[in-house]
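Researcher: Please translate sequence to structure tokens.
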Amino acid sequence: MNATISSSSCAAHLHARPAFSTRCDRRPGCSRTQHKQAFRAEASYKDQVASVSRREAALAGLGALFLLPVGSAQAGLLGGPDKNEVYTADTSLLLEKVKSGLDLPKDASNREEVFQEIKEKTTAWVAKYRRGAAFQGRPSYNTTYSAVNALAGHFNSFGLTAPVPKKRLDRIQKEITDADRALKRGR
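Model: Translation complete:
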């Protein structure tokens, strides 16, 4: 800003106003030309400050981009682990939980908590992979889905503490074994 404008009463008055204000209540000692000059100088000064800060921000962002570590080509900016690896890990974890839950004795004290956790994991697994067309054709998906669906139906009908009947238990265990075998083969 010019020294002559900043020494005027209007320039001081402009600095005292809020930044979003578009008009100035002119003070008695402020002439119209001083007011216009001070207002233009203030706007020009704000434009200069804003353009410098935008430029600095853009340069800082570009510099930060170059400092990021280089990831694998498969990950990309929004990527992550391979979908097949995540599916294999999630399905293996679910199958292990179901196996361990079915192997519990009928009078185990933590039976209800274990089956509640299995029910929650089953619901999360089905919600995650049910709509994924890439997984629906796999034998591991179909047999896992069949096994957990039978177990969920038992839980919904008889509760979490009711023992699974022998025939249903044998079928679920066979499907879990088949699903685990297919999963290890990458199918």
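Researcher: Any highlights?
Model: Residues 3-67 form one domain.
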